[in-house]
Specification:
The chain is α+β, with helices and mostly antiparallel strands. The chain has one helix at 3-30; strands spanning 33-45, 48-57, 60-64, 75-82, 87-91, 94-102, 105-113. The termini are far apart.
Length: 129
């Protein structure tokens, strides 16, 4: 190998390693940490009880949507993480929804709730029995 080619290979490896290290540091230390509160409320929809979870950061609160299909939403950029390593993504094209997922953990959809009204509003029809 010529001297120029060796230098080029070393430079390319250095750039790739630098980019990888930057991404790891960014995801571990720069992204905001959302507070995850589990089992905050139990709701009954169509006779089935669902446990709701809450994500909050900087005065903004999101509540889990138990009937939402995460596969219908497209992941946008990663906007945060939780203390236990779960990744939080913005839904592409929707500023009111987040998706939380992690290794060996299915994605969950969260919807932004109003700061004045912390009551959950589920847009599902409840059947009367």
């Amino acid at each position: 190998m010529s001297r120029r080619l060796k230098r080029l290979v070393i430079f390319v490896i250095f750039v790739l390693l630098s980019y990888g290290i930057y991404n790891v540091i960014y995801k571990l230390y720069v992204l905001p940490v959302f507070k995850l509160e589990e089992n905050v409320e139990v709701v009954t929809i169509n006779g089935t009880e669902y446990v709701l979870h809450r994500l909050s950061y900087n005065g903004t609160t999101y509540i889990s949507e138990p009937l939402a299909d995460a596969d219908k939403y497209q992941l946008g950029k990663q906007v945060g993480r939780t203390k236990d390593g779960m990744q939080i993504y913005q839904v592409k094209g929707d500023d009111t929804r987040l998706i939380m997922q992690g290794f060996m953990f299915p994605p969950e959809v969260y919807k932004k709730i109003d700061s004045g009204n912390r009551q959950l509003k589920i847009n599902q029809k409840k059947k009367d029995h």
